[in-house]
Amino acid sequence: MQLLCLTDRDPADSLPGLDLLPHEVRTSPLSLRVPETMASRFDAILIDGSLDPRRARTASLALVEATDTPRVVILPEVALPALTLDWGVRDLLLPTASPAEIELRLRLLERPVSDTDTTPPAVQSAGVVIDESNFIARVFGRTLDLTYKEFELLHFLAGHPGRVFTRDQLLSEVWGTDYFGGTRTVDVHVRRLRAKLGEHEGLISTVRGVGYGFARARYDEDGE
């Protein structure tokens, strides 16, 4: 693949695993505006936010209107809460990502788009609609301003209404099996999600001693 990496340092330092893959990588400073004609020559654009997430966000926002070339942001785990849908990226990579993970995520970007393609069906449950293809979540028509992990957590919960998941299960499904943080992060993200759901915060219920469920009251009433 032909890759453009927006970074202020050697890509081998921001994403070491990439150096072991046979892709052609061209670099450009984060602050440099990328013309559409230039961006279109690449299969994907990597945006390095491993040192300065704010500058990465600025660079990403500048590309939203400029090009349709898929974009992947590189962010350290501590900066993930800053990633929101308006960044316009298709995926993210941690600086510690292995060559196998990098290769997989890049290959997924290559899926051709044609008139016969079908977009993933939106998840709809209890007034929440999750548009996965566009990373948009709404509750009763109101768009939610979610971080990447908040979106992923809501998407998973809304996709399994009525079920109850332990914190460990949610960590595995949303954060991945290689996540080494504690289950406290699940509680923090649930609290933030509830705040953003506002008057509909009760859609995410706590089952004491077990974990969390979504739309359990409605699910039980419908008898599904």
TrEMBL record:
Q: What is this protein called?
A: Response regulator transcription factor
Positions of the OmpR/PhoB-type domain = 120-216
Q: Does the keyword DNA-binding apply?
A: yes
The record's keywords, sorted A to Z, are: DNA-binding
Q: Which domain of life is it from?
A: Bacteria
Binding region for DNA: 120-216
Q: Which residues form the signal peptide?
A: none
Gene3D superfamilies the UniProt entry points to: 3.40.50.2300, Winged helix-like DNA-binding domain superfamily/Winged helix DNA-binding domain
Q: Which InterPro entries match?
A: GlnR_N (IPR049170), OmpR/PhoB-type_DNA-bd (IPR001867), Sig_transdc_resp-reg_C-effctor (IPR016032), WalR-like (IPR039420), WH-like_DNA-bd_sf (IPR036388)
Listed SUPFAM superfamilies: C-terminal effector domain of the bipartite response regulators
